[in-house]
Amino acid sequence: MVAMPADSTRPARLDRLRAALPGWAGGALTGLQAVALSYLVVLAPALAAVAGAPSLDGSAAVDWAGAATVATSVWLLGHGVPIVFGGATLSLVPLGMPLVSAAILMGVARRFAVKTWTSWALGVATFAAGAAVIGWLGSPDGSREAGALRAALVCALIAAPAVAAGIWRAYGARLHLLDVIPDEVRAGLRLGLGTLALVVSVAAAIGGVWAVLGMDRIATLASDLRMDPLGAGALAIAETLYVPTLVCWMVAWLVGPGFVVGTGSLYAPDTLTVDALPQLPLLGALPSGSGGWWTWAPVAVVALAALARAFLGRRIGLDWASARSAGVAIAAVALGFAALTAASRGAAGPGRLEQVGAEIVPVTLIGTALVAAGYGAVWATVAAWRWARGRLRRDDAPAGSGAPVTPVAPAAPVREPAGSGR
Question: How many independent structural domains does the chain possess?
Answer without folding.
Answer: 2
